[in-house]
Specification:
Helices cover 43% and strands 23% of the residues. The protein is an alpha+beta fold. It has a 4-stranded antiparallel sheet. β4 and β5 form a beta hairpin.
Length: 221
């Protein structure tokens, strides 16, 4: 699998409470088993999705079959909304990394919500603006920053998105795919961060111990 920048398409725990309440209150929940595709690149978007449980990988496939990971989605996030709003074919695919529960958000659901609570429309616009801002920051990161800085920045953002600010549920392969470096490079840098006491590692997760030191590394070009 090729490596690519972590294009953020979701908002994790950063979703406004009123939007989270709307999506959590929808009765229809679809269960998706690990390895099952949720939507495919090139198809028309009839809905976008709210992730109640599990993790989802967003990726693109080239004409010669190469895949590029764009984002790893965690519970409490929305995904697949870009094609839904612009009405054009999807530019990426989504697949469940583990058993997932998703809520399809259709146009009728959204229009009814906006009709009752028009302030939700503004919240959605703010989220789209945030996507653009975060995308710009990621382009800057992968273009100008060293690998150590990119990895530190990724872990800090991932911990913030989860909500507790210190735990990152990810693998070294996923980090490499997200920031555009090899798994060997990720392993070397993570081990050095661990030796310095900046973090500890466990199975499928990383605990940040010294966020101040990681923030200093993240800020370096």
């Amino acid at each position: 699998m090729d490596r690519m920048i972590h294009f953020v398409e979701s908002y994790g725990s950063g979703l406004p409470q009123n939007l989270t309440g709307l999506f959590e209150g929808i009765n229809y929940v679809r269960s998706v088993e690990k390895g099952v595709e949720i939507y495919s690149q090139g198809e028309k978007a009839e809905s976008f999705f709210y992730l109640k449980r599990g993790r989802v990988r967003i990726y693109m496939t080239s004409e010669n079959g190469m895949e590029k990971t764009l984002s790893i989605i965690s519970k409490g996030a929305i995904f697949g909304e870009a094609a839904f709003f612009d009405g054009r074919p999807r530019v990426s695919s989504a697949i469940a990394l583990q058993r997932a529960e998703i809520v399809p958000i259709t146009r009728d659901i959204l229009e009814n919500a906006f009709r009752t609570h028009p302030e939700l429309a503004l919240e959605m616009l703010r989220l789209q603006a945030l996507t653009i801002r975060m995308l710009s920051a990621q382009v800057d990161s992968v273009t100008f920053r060293r690998a150590e800085s990119r990895i530190a920045n990724f872990m800090l953002e991932a911990a913030y998105e989860r909500g507790d600010g210190k735990t990152v549920f990810t693998t070294q392969e996923e980090i490499g795919s997200a920031v555009g470096v090899s798994r060997i490079t990720v392993s070397r840098i993570i081990n050095e961060f661990s030796r310095q006491g900046y973090l500890t590692t466990g199975y499928g997760k990383i605990i940040l111990k010294n966020k101040k030191a990681l923030e200093e590394i993240s800020s370096k070009a």
